[in-house]
Amino acid sequence: MAALQSTIEALRLAAVAADRVKATDIVAFDVTGPIAITDAMLIATASSERQVLAVAEEVEKELYTKGDKLEPRSREGLDEARWVLLDYGDFVIHIMHEEERSYYDLERLWQDCPAIDLELPDAPAGLSSDTAAAQTQD
Question: pLDDT tens across 36-81, in order?
Fold first, then answer.
């Protein structure tokens, strides 16, 4: 349980970093049930290739400086900058261009998994501020 708590704390740091550089639709899921190779995943959207890279850089910097020098085991997608995957072992971070996010719809794959409350400002538990705003307009 302590390992999952430290993973959640790291995901919250990553979410705050992504939010700081204007990523949207930031969500995280506890995937310990269906996946044996990682405990959680965070997904964030960026509107351009440049922003995808900026979000990835900010997340890495935040996790290194405030997350006990956490570094990803691997990075994928930096050349194309349409979908960057940062693999930290216990958790994985997906930073996706909005077109890829819409096309692949990862939330549909993980909809049965519990959402993780990222504690982002102005967002209900487990929701990004953009998702919360959309829900209040309905």
Answer: 899 999 999 999 999 999 999 999 999 999 998 999 999 999 999 9
* Measured distance CA(26)–CA(138) in Å, rounded: 20
Strand 83-87 and strand 91-97: pairing? antiparallel
Helices marked H in 38-125: 49-66, 98-104, 106-109
The model's pLDDT over 90-99, given as tens digits with 9 standing for 90+, comes to: 999 999 999 9
CATH T-level assignment (fold) for domain 2-137: Beta Polymerase; domain 2 (3.30.460)
Distance CA 30, CA 72 (A): 19
Q: Is 92 in contact with 83 (CB distance < 8 Å)? A: no
Token reading at 58 = 């900010």
Q: Which residues pair with 91 in a beta bridge?
A: 40
